[in-house]
TrEMBL record:
Keywords attached to this entry: Cell cycle, Cell division, Centromere, Chromosome, Coiled coil, Kinetochore, Mitosis, Nucleus
Entry annotated with the keyword Repeat: no
Biological process annotations from GO: cell division; chromosome segregation
Family indicated by similarity: Belongs to the SPC25 family.
Name of the protein: Kinetochore protein SPC25
Record's GO cellular component terms: Ndc80 complex; nucleus
C-alpha cells in the first residue's frame, strides 16, 4: 500500500476568526482531496494486486489440480495394468503348478517304469546266465558228440568210399537230409567222352523220398523213385539210376 501524507491542521483558535469581519475557517480542501485520492488509489492498487494474486493462485491451483488429476489417472491406469498383470501372473502360476504336478506325476511314472525295467533286466540277466550255462553244457555235449561221431566216422567213411567205388559215384551231403549223388559215365564202348550226371535225393521224410534236381533229365527217374518208395532200398535205387544213365548215353 502506497503511503500518503495527511497534513494535520494546527489547533483552531476561534477568537480571531470570530473577530474578523468575514469569519472563515480554512478546511485545507486541496490537501484533503489529494489525501483522499491517494487513499483511493492505494485501495485500488491493493485491490488490483489482490485480484492478480488471487488469479495467479487460482491458475496455479487449477494447474496443480490438473497435474494431480492427470497423475491420479496415470496412477490409476498403472494400477489397472498392474492388476491385469497380477491376474495374468496368477494364471501363469496356476498353470506352472499344474505343469509341475503333471511333471512330477510323469517323473514318478518313469521312476516306476525304470524300477520295473531294472527288475526285468535283472530277471533277464538271470535268464541269460542260465542260458549261458546251458549253452556251455550243450557245447560240451556237442564237443563230446563230435568226438564220438568223429570216432564212428572213420570206419563209416571207409565203408562209404568202398560203396562209392562199387557204385561208381560220389555221395555228398548238401543240406539237412539231402544227398548229392554224382556219376562220371562214359558215352559208350567206342566213345572216349565222359558225362557228368548228378541228382539230389531228399531223405528227410520217412514215408516218401524225393528227387529235388537231376542233371541231365532222366525219363525213367519217376518210375525208379516209385520203386524206391516201395522198397525203401536207397542203395539199389542209386545203382538203378546209374544203369539208367548208362543206357541213356550208350
Amino acid at each position: 500500500m502506497h503511503a500518503y501524507n495527511l497534513a494535520r491542521p494546527g489547533q483552531l483558535n476561534l477568537a480571531p476568526i470570530l473577530s474578523a469581519q468575514s469569519p472563515t475557517i480554512d478546511l485545507h480542501l486541496p490537501a484533503y482531496d489529494a489525501s483522499t485520492r491517494n487513499f483511493l488509489q492505494a485501495i485500488s492498487d491493493f485491490n488490483s494486486r489482490a485480484i492478480a494474486e488471487i488469479n495467479q493462485r487460482r491458475e496455479a491451483h487449477a494447474t496443480e489440480t490438473t497435474r494431480l488429476a492427470e497423475r491420479a489417472q496415470g496412477m490409476e491406469k498403472e494400477t489397472n495394468q498392474c492388476k491385469i498383470k497380477e491376474i495374468e501372473l496368477i494364471g501363469v502360476l496356476e498353470r506352472e503348478r499344474e505343469e509341475t504336478k503333471e511333471a512330477e506325476s510323469s517323473v514318478n511314472a518313469l521312476r516306476r517304469q525304470v524300477a520295473s525295467q531294472r527288475e526285468a533286466v535283472a530277471a533277464l540277466d538271470a535268464d541269460i546266465e542260465q542260458y549261458r550255462a546251458r549253452v556251455a553244457n550243450l557245447r560240451k555235449e556237442r564237443e563230446r558228440e563230435r568226438k564220438t561221431l568223429a570216432m564212428h566216422a572213420v570206419p563209416i567213411s571207409a565203408e562209404l568210399r568202398a560203396c562209392e567205388r562199387a557204385w561208381g559215384c560220389v555221395i555228398e551231403g548238401v543240406g539237412p537230409d539231402q544227398l548229392l549223388i554224382r556219376y562220371s559215365l562214359k558215352g559208350g564202348e567206342s566213345s572216349r567222352s565222359t558225362h557228368e550226371v548228378s541228382f539230389v535225393l531228399d531223405v528227410s521224410s520217412s514215408s516218401s523220398y524225393k528227387v529235388l534236381t537231376s542233371t541231365p533229365l532222366l525219363p525213367t527217374l519217376p518210375m525208379l523213385l516209385d520203386q524206391l518208395n516201395e522198397s525203401r532200398d536207397v542203395f539199389t535205387f542209386i545203382k538203378c539210376v546209374r544203369q539208367a544213365y548208362v543206357k541213356l548215353f550208350s
